[in-house]
Design goal:
The protein is mainly alpha-helical. The chain has three helices and no strands. The chain has one domain. The radius of gyration is 15 Å and the shape is elongated.
């Protein structure tokens, strides 16, 4: 049986991994190349910020 710390790490790893995968899929839908898609998945909070800035500029025009 896993210890408490291992269980907490597993419970945190699953949603974080899911967000990374979904972010990578989203970047692919936006037309990103493979290196960009992998980078977006690994650095998903930064990808969200860049999407927000990019989309906000398009809306402001």
């Amino acid at each position: 049986m896993p210890s408490g710390a291992v269980l907490v790490m597993l419970l945190l790893a699953v949603p974080v991994s899911a967000l990374a995968v979904l972010t990578a899929f989203g970047e692919r839908r936006r037309g990103g190349s493979l290196p960009v898609v992998l980078g977006a998945g690994l650095l998903f909070p930064l990808a969200w910020v860049s999407w927000y800035v990019r989309d906000r500029r398009a809306v402001a025009r």
